[in-house]
């Protein structure tokens, strides 16, 4: 009898807990438009003729920053994005791309390994090398960008871990 009562209560608790955890996830930072492409940088690099134009929302890890007289180019190792548009670095990389910013961008603000998400228009491709290998980089003319802090990357990820038994981590 007690077991049925506990099971009935758990039947209500589990969906409510799942809903509460989902509500903790931050909203996407950029709104996808009908023209936003779902292709990854790797797909665009392999078939640039299919993706001559369009808007993208891509993110990843900063590789290098190069400043020029009128613009800045940031090479980014792309990763898929989560529902909040944060790069999922625990997954396989999705290619590389070059984010083209108007004007000067301070390299100190984008050190190697920084995680970023950019929104912008595809602006063609460029062939170059990654070490000794030939590579085709999609170019993104950046309209908006966001550099993620460690706290933002943790946001929406509860410190509750299930295993043998139940444990709650407090930081």
Notes on the protein architecture:
The chain has a domain at 41-154: OB fold (Dihydrolipoamide Acetyltransferase, E2P), CATH 2.40.50. The chain has 3 helices and 7 strands; from the N terminus they run ααβββββαββ. With 171 residues, it is an alpha+beta fold. The chain has helices spanning 2-24, 41-46, 150-154; strands spanning 55-67, 71-79, 96-102, 115-130, 133-147, 160-163, 165-168. The strands form 2 sheets. A 5-stranded mixed beta barrel has the order 1-2-3-5-4. Residues 1-22 form the signal peptide. This is Slp family lipoprotein.
Give the structure's gist in a few sentences:
The longest helix is centred in the first third of the chain and has 23 residues, at 2-24. 20% of the residues lie in helices and 40% in strands. The protein has 171 residues and is an alpha+beta fold.
CATH topology of the domain at 41-154: OB fold (Dihydrolipoamide Acetyltransferase, E2P)
Categorize the overall geometry. globular
**Averaged pLDDT, please?**
82
Question: Architecture of the domain at 41-154, CATH level 2?
Answer: Beta Barrel
Helix content: 10-25%
| Strand percent estimate | 35-45%
**Poorly predicted parts:** 16-23
The first-level CATH class name of the domain at 41-154: Mainly Beta
Order of helices and strands: HHEEEEEHEE
Kindly report how far apart the N and C termini lie. Answer: 39 Å
Number of helices: 3
